[in-house]
UniProtKB/TrEMBL annotation, chain B:
Top-level taxon in the UniProt lineage: Bacteria
Species annotation: Pseudomonas turukhanskensis
Protein name: Uncharacterized protein
Length: 278, 150
């Protein structure tokens, strides 16, 4: 907070002070608060002394003046006075101390009172009765400055928002990891096609649509032969890898398999196929 | 702060927590520790080689407390491997080979290259084998081996 130039009060055309506070200074002067200029103006014998409160100090006083006689929580004051950033409790303490100094209240602490573990309160008895000052707006005192909505958030809300963002990030990260494990680690892409012939069920498995189509074409004859080979229900699963066709024969109690070299597919005998159905 | 604003915050928070818990539940339900795969698995089958010969192949796998021990008998050749179960998720397993030993590999001199490659891959240290469920069995994607619970 800085003191600006001293000038005669008479003859000036200024914005009306938003509120008037009786200070604790020895000369008992009154302080006129100008929130739009972040200033306190002390009137003494026709001379004005302007004290710049700075944005945070002005906002702090403004909030306390909005509800004189009521306790304003520390978190709320922090959010109101430092709406664009998060600061520690020390900043609030420092600003309150500075305000008290300016108002001559640093020793008595009667104008801005500390309510331990609750917050601060501006004592209404130090406010000048505005009915006596026809020029001044009625206590209430002034409409709050138009602020971005974010400024009205309490610190708790900001913390909650941060927490929710962190939880969201964690959730998204979990899903990404899950997807990575599922798709990459376990190489899960397997395309299947199915076909039923009587009580035989055939499943064709491949990794690409082209390979699946090729498999179905290559094993068409084998499929017909297998279907005619036994009477009991069997589930067959066919695949191809490198130089082999793979045949899995699943019956109620047994599961066997047969690998056939591609070159041997046209020559494979029924007896060899039956070995898969033992 | 108005009541409706409060409600929005609490509703949003509750939805987010519910979503996180839901995701956690999905993971928990699908997660299997390697111990849950404990047991003995095996399968038997035949391979018809390029030259028309048929050889019998047997696969046996034992999973115990996060480790696996496997044996493949392919004709006269035997491949023994062991290692760790790296992870189990969504009923799938991933094995990492730590030790492999082939016996009488000379007897497999006439088998097809692809078959030999699968056999050797499964015995190579640090090779990874992904097991994918097929019905009640597991299929080793890299080595083309089938393991069914005994």
């Amino acid at each position: 907070m800085t003191m600006s130039e001293t000038m005669p009060r008479a003859g000036t055309h200024e914005v009306k002070p938003a509120s008037v506070i009786r200070t604790g200074r020895p000369d008992g002067c009154q302080a006129h608060f100008h929130p739009e200029r972040y200033q306190l103006v002390f009137s003494r014998e026709g001379v004005e002394e302007k004290i710049d409160l700075g944005f945070s100090g002005s906002r702090l006083l403004e909030r306390l003046l909005q509800v004189p006689g009521e306790v304003v929580g520390r978190d709320e004051l922090l959010a109101y006075a430092w709406s664009d950033r998060i600061v520690g409790q020390g900043s609030l303490n420092q600003q309150i101390y500075s305000l008290r100094q300016v108002l001559g209240d640093e020793k008595n602490r009667e104008i801005i009172q500390t309510l331990p573990r609750r917050g601060y309160m501006l004592s209404p008895k130090f406010l000048v009765n505005l009915n006596d000052l026809a020029d001044l707006p009625a206590p209430g005192f002034f409409p709050p400055l138009a602020l971005p909505r974010r400024a009205n958030r309490t610190l708790n809300q900001q913390r909650m928002a941060t927490l929710m963002m962190a939880a969201s990030a964690l959730l998204i990260l979990s899903l990404v990891v899950f997807a990575y494990i599922y798709h990459e680690l376990f190489q899960s892409q397997v395309l299947v096609a199915e076909r039923d012939i009587g009580n035989k069920h055939f499943t064709y498995a491949a990794t690409t649509p082209q390979a699946l189509e090729q498999l179905r074409n290559d094993t068409g004859g084998l499929t017909e032969r297998l279907a005619a080979l036994v009477e009991q229900p069997v589930q067959f699963r066919l695949g191809a890898n490198a130089g082999f066709f793979e045949l899995l024969c699943v019956q109620r109690d047994t599961t066997r398999w047969l690998m056939i070299n591609r070159a041997q597919l046209p020559k494979v005998q029924d007896e060899q196929l039956r070995s898969c159905l033992q | 702060m108005t009541l409706s604003k409060n409600c929005r915050w609490y509703t949003g928070g509750a939805l987010l927590v519910a979503a996180a818990l839901g995701a956690l539940l999905v993971v928990c339900v699908n997660f299997k520790s390697s111990n849950e795969f404990n047991g003995r698995y095996s399968s038997s089958g035949d391979v018809i080689l390029r030259d028309g010969h048929k050889i019998e192949v047997n696969h046996t796998l034992l999973i115990k407390d996060g480790r696996f021990y496997a044996l493949t008998r392919q004709g006269l050749s035997i491949m023994e491997t062991s290692g760790i179960v790296e992870s189990g998720f969504l009923n799938r397993m991933r094995l990492r080979v730590e030790k492999g030993k082939a016996t009488d590999l000379d007897a497999s001199g006439n088998i097809d290259n692809d078959l030999l490659f699968n056999l050797m891959y499964g015995g190579e240290v640090d090779s990874v084998i992904n097991l994918r469920p097929i019905g009640k069995c597991y299929f080793a994607v890299e080595t083309r081996q089938l393991y069914c619970a005994d």
